[in-house]
């Protein structure tokens, strides 16, 4: 484990606290390391949380409870029934509602003193810099590699720190990336994994309470960074195993070959999905313009298909493409279009389909998420 770095407080103290705020945050103020000045820093901070799902739920709640002055919530997804096992900021009554709005309601109910900014759209290279510029630090609670690289690059180009978390089944990871003070995400992962090689939570599952553990650590890192107390995770990756209740650290060194940290990449990439190997495929607009003579296949799991699907789609889960059991029953004389949640699984299935000789096939870039966004 590398020596964790002491940092100066990221935020200057803000206005004096009101009497109500002194009572609300009294248990913080009683801690000598935080005291009144530290709480004033927290109240003066502006934090953007990308994602209001498993990791975003505890992160947003604890940011609000701590009194962070402005909290940005960036998410364009809707609450689904399968989310409720781990996304504790949402309730049964929120199913079908915007995740960002649902999270805003809970955060404001918890602490009406904080200002919640909604960003109900997909994070893209054309809007990331503008959104990030409004905040002091970023917390990445996303679940796909294209967005993670975009977050890293945008934060680095603006000189802002960001706290990253990842979860899968019983395993969680957390680190603090800040290119001007230490390594960035590209120093840890110079290149993205092959599409489909890393299962998503929708495919492999995740222990609900793991989200609370990792999200809480992310928020803890944010509070330490804001107030300048303790030691941060810059230069270290915390790896937590919930099944065996163990944790370890992996040192992350600043790479001389990193395009971000070396300064050779001075702008955002034009297409992060293409960078992550997801460039093949068609857009929702192109799918809508297609004639009806195609076979639309949903490669997700049956539980996902029941929640939402594209009209006319046939469910054939990804496992059937991997074991080759479906190829003999597919039509060779029709175009085949695949889709999944975000495009990762369908891109993997597309490769298998083309290798089996179905050259007149493609997939929907961005998956059903992009489709539903295009319907708004």
Summary, kept brief:
The chain has 376 residues and is an alpha/beta fold. The chain has helices spanning 19-24, 26-29, 35-43, 56-66, 99-110, 128-132, 145-158, 185-188, 201-204, 208-227, 272-275, 284-289, 302-307, 318-322, 344-355, 367-374, and strands spanning 46-50, 70-74, 115-119, 137-140, 162-168, 171-177, 236-241, 246-251, 294-298, 314-315, 335-339, 361-363.
Structural class by helix and strand composition: alpha/beta
Percent helix, as a range, is 25-40%
CATH class of the largest domain: Alpha Beta
Mean pLDDT across residues: 93
CATH domain topology of the largest domain: Rossmann fold
Q: What does it look like?
A:
This protein is an alpha/beta fold and 376 residues long. The protein has 2 domains: 19-270, Rossmann fold (3-Layer(aba) Sandwich), CATH 3.40.50; 284-374, Rhodanese-like domain (Oxidized Rhodanese, domain 1), CATH 3.40.250.10. It is 35% helix and 16% strand. The protein has 16 helices and 12 strands. α4 (56-66) packs parallel to α5 (99-110) and α4 (56-66) runs parallel beside α10. The chain is globular.
């Amino acid at each position: 484990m590398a020596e964790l770095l002491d940092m100066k407080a990221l935020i200057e103290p803000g206005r004096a606290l009101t009497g109500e705020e002194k009572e609300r945050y009294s248990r913080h103020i009683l801690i000598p390391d935080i005291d009144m000045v530290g709480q004033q820093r927290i109240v003066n901070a502006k934090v953007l949380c990308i994602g209001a799902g498993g990791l975003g739920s505890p992160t947003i709640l604890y940011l609000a409870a701590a009194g962070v002055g402005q909290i940005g919530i960036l998410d364009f997804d809707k609450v689904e029934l399968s989310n409720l096992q781990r996304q504790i900021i949402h309730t049964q009554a929120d199913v079908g509602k915007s995740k960002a709005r649902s999270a805003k309601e809970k955060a404001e109910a918890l602490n009406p003193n904080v200002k919640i900014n909604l960003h109900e759209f997909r994070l893209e290279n054309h809007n990331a810099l503008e959104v990030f510029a409004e905040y002091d630090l970023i917390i990445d609670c996303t679940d796909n590699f294209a967005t993670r690289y975009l977050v890293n690059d945008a934060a680095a180009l603006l000189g802002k720190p960001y706290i990253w978390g990842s979860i899968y089944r019983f395993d969680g990871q957390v680190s603090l990336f800040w290119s001007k003070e230490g390594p960035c995400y590209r120093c840890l992962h110079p290149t993205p994994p092959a599409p489909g090689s890393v299962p998503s939570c929708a495919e492999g599952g995740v222990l609900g309470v793991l989200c609370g553990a990792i999200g809480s650590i992310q928020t803890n890192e944010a509070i330490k960074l804001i107030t300048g107390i303790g030691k941060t995770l810059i230069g270290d990756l915390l790896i937590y195993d919930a099944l065996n209740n163990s944790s370890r650290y992996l040192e992350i060194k600043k790479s001389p070959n990193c395009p971000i940290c070396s300064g050779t990449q001075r702008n955002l990439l034009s297409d992060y999905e293409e960078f992550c190997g997801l460039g093949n495929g068609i857009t929702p607009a192109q799918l809508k313009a297609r004639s009806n003579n195609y076979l639309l296949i949903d490669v997700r799991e049956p539980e996902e298909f029941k929640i939402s699907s594209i009209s006319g789609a046939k469910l054939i889960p990804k496992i059937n493409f991997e074991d080759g059991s479906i190829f003999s029953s597919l039509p060779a004389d029709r175009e085949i279009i695949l889709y999944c949640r975000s495009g990762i699984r369908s891109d993997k299935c597309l490769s298998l389909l083309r290798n089996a000789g179905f050259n007149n096939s493609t997939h929907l870039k961005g998956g059903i998420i992009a489709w539903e966004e295009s319907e708004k």
